[in-house]
Amino acid sequence: MHTFTSFARHTSRKSRTLPMGSISHGTLRTEDLFPALRAAIGRVRLSRADRAKFRALCKEWDQLPSGERWGGTAEDPVIDWTDDQHETASELYMDLLQLAESYTPAYAYLGMHDGDGSDLGVWAAVDSVQEAVLDGEIWQECDGQDDQGCYRQEYRQCADQRVAVPRGALWVSVSDHGNVTLYRSVGGGRSREIWGVV
């Protein structure tokens, strides 16, 4: 399994994207997935329209019977929903999932982990990064110790001269150990890490 790093500034401000990694593990129950995803989205800076949609979804969810009312506990709720309530819960979860997908980092996806179908989270789409490099959409660090500071787009030949990644462009670094890190250029030869897969 991959270890993910997600770099949001450590401030009191909310992140613009969901963090990389697991959101909910070991369950496929809607009554477990919705609250976990709700908590993750609650830490993201949403647009005004999405905040209103998020609040409406949460309000409707909160109107469903909770597990504790049926004799369960917060840790192990027993939910005895009707078929209509199960359908409503599933629809609310799918709507929340759709809202959350627009807040994933670049070249990442929100869904179940490829290696563990019960692990909902935000995962790196490494295959998509590789395709984007081949298509020239993402710059890639040149190989070789003497090429430090050299970047290229796949459809161009890696020239001898040093090429700076344009401001706002994405670029990827792949270490000799296979670690993949995606960056966004912020100009002046500086970049901000979006995510890394170890």
Structure description:
The chain has 198 residues and is α+β, with helices and mostly antiparallel strands. The protein has 2 domains: 4-124, no CATH class; 126-197, no CATH class. Helix content is 28%, strand content 25%. The protein has helices at 30-41, 48-62, 83-101, 126-134; strands at 4-6, 21-25, 108-113, 116-124, 139-141, 151-152, 170-174, 180-187, 190-197. A 6-stranded mixed beta sheet has the order 1-9-8-7-5-6, covered by helices on one side. A 3-stranded antiparallel beta sheet has the order 2-4-3, covered by helices on one side. A hairpin with a 2-residue loop joins strand 3 and strand 4. The termini are close together.
In a nutshell, what does this entry contain?
The chain has 198 residues and is an alpha+beta fold. It is built from 4 helices and 9 strands. Strands 1-9-8-7-5-6 form a 6-stranded mixed β-sheet, covered by helices on one side.
Number of domains: 2
Radius of gyration: 21 Å
The number of helices is 4
Poorly predicted runs of 5 or more residues = 1-10, 154-161
Proportion of helical residues: 25-40%
Instruction: Give the overall shape.
Output: elongated
Q: Strand arrangement, largest sheet?
A: 1-9-8-7-5-6
Helix and strand string, N-terminal first? EEHHHEEHEEEEE
